Amino acid sequence: MVQKGPRPLVLCGPSGSGKSTLLKRLLKEFPDRFGFSVSHTTRGPRPGEKDGVHYHFTNKDDMTAAVEKGEFLETATFSGNMYGTSKRAVEAVRRSGKICVLDIEIEGVKQVKRTDLDPLLVFVMPPSIEELERRLRARNTEQEDALKKRLDTACREIEFGREPGNFHIIILNDNLDKAYSELREFIAQNLEDKEQGSSDTTDK
Length: 204
Fold this sequence. Notes:
By secondary structure, the chain is an alpha/beta fold.
């Protein structure tokens, strides 16, 4: 299994909830403390996305074979594409002495909870489905049918996110600064006390 280390931080939420923005801000403010676990996907890169940075881009045959060999902690299929977190990606972050951050879907959360990673689970909630639809339309990256699928998925994700016991905290992202402040506070309460001893001596 994956090596023991600091508890990983899992961010989950519907597409358009703002979890990626919160994650980017966290990694920018604390580059020496947090490391992003780069997921694998079988979908093609979007404009500006780099292999090994945003995702490890692969194909269905290779990824299916790796999953069958037990190389993945979690996998999910979305809009016909596979996504997943490899054990190697998490171990790479941990070996660097950083807290591993995962951005995963609901199915991935269910699978990770069954491992011995003992992650801290954060659900990022959009203000409303209407606001979520507005944000997704503003991206202008998808056809109408794909957008409808995303919104249907978002409704199911929000339902799961609200169920007691599924997450340690739900952060309502109706104001980015407030949402980020809540995320930082949650991390400070749950991770920083254990990490302080080692944080002063790293990266010298």
